[in-house]
Design brief:
Layout (H helix, E strand, L loop, with lengths): L3 H8 L4 E6 L2 H8 L6 E3 L1 H9 L9 H13 L5 E4 L7 H13 L4 E5 L18 H14 L6 E6 L1 H5 L1 H14 L3 E4 L5 H10 L4 E4 L11 H6 L4 E4 L2 H20 L10 H8 L1 H10 L5 H5 L1
Parallel strand pairs: 1-2, 1-8, 2-3, 3-4, 4-5, 5-6, 6-7, 7-8
Helix pairs in contact: 4-5, 5-6, 6-8
Amino acid sequence: MADPTLKAALRGGEFIVAPGIFDMISARMADRMGFAALYATGYGTVASHLGVPDAGIATFTDMVSRMSRFAQGTRTPVIADADTGYGGLLNVRHTVQGYEAGGVTAIQIEDQEVPKKCGHTPGRRVIPAEEMALKIEVAAEARRSDDFLIIARTDARTTLGLDEAIRRGKLYARAGADIIFIESPESEEEMRRIGGEIDAPLLANNVEGGRTPILPAETLKAIGYNVAIFPAIGFLSVARALEGAYAHLRRNGDSHGLETYAFSDMNELMGFPEVWEFDAKWARPERSQAAE
């Protein structure tokens, strides 16, 4: 079931900073940091699971199992990317029910045409706003708990302009979305307009090297935002670390002098102490001793 603490935090005026997770190592690492929410990135999850671009290739079946594992393997509420809802209205209902049953707390659905594309890449096209509003209505009706939050994302800014993106954000809020996500504003001024004109909780997407300026949390809160996600921070950091580590190994033929995460710490992160404790509790005498 959805974790009620995320909705309570938003209602209480807390500004939510959510790091991107993309596999269970990143999920477990972020889970211990004390964040109010984790953001399960579609880009990172598709890249790590399938090794392909975030371009509508992954299916509902691919994603619901991953998103459910993130939610079930952590204690922190999980906000999960669900692309376009993986199809039409019936697909949206099925997606919401699947994600909620898997333990996800908030689901993000966007108004792109199928196949969708990553929000900070070119070539994105959107469906009619009224069609997306119906998807949001279906999503809101399909959830079993009001603690399960619906995030409506519009990608209209890049192709249709900011005015249309703001219009869609207002429409999606009226349709029942709990949080509005205007993707890819291109300046702080645009973000201030969004915060000033949309009377609903707002999400800022912070992608290192992306189209949107990354503003401090204090500034985002002051101009009307409530949530800041950092979807790429995990997989970009890991990619840089792996590039350096593998280059070191190729260059030197060994790992001497390479700074890595401690193997003992990784054992602890993955839960090996519990396995060892279980083994010790249920250890059986040796066969030879049993024969005596």
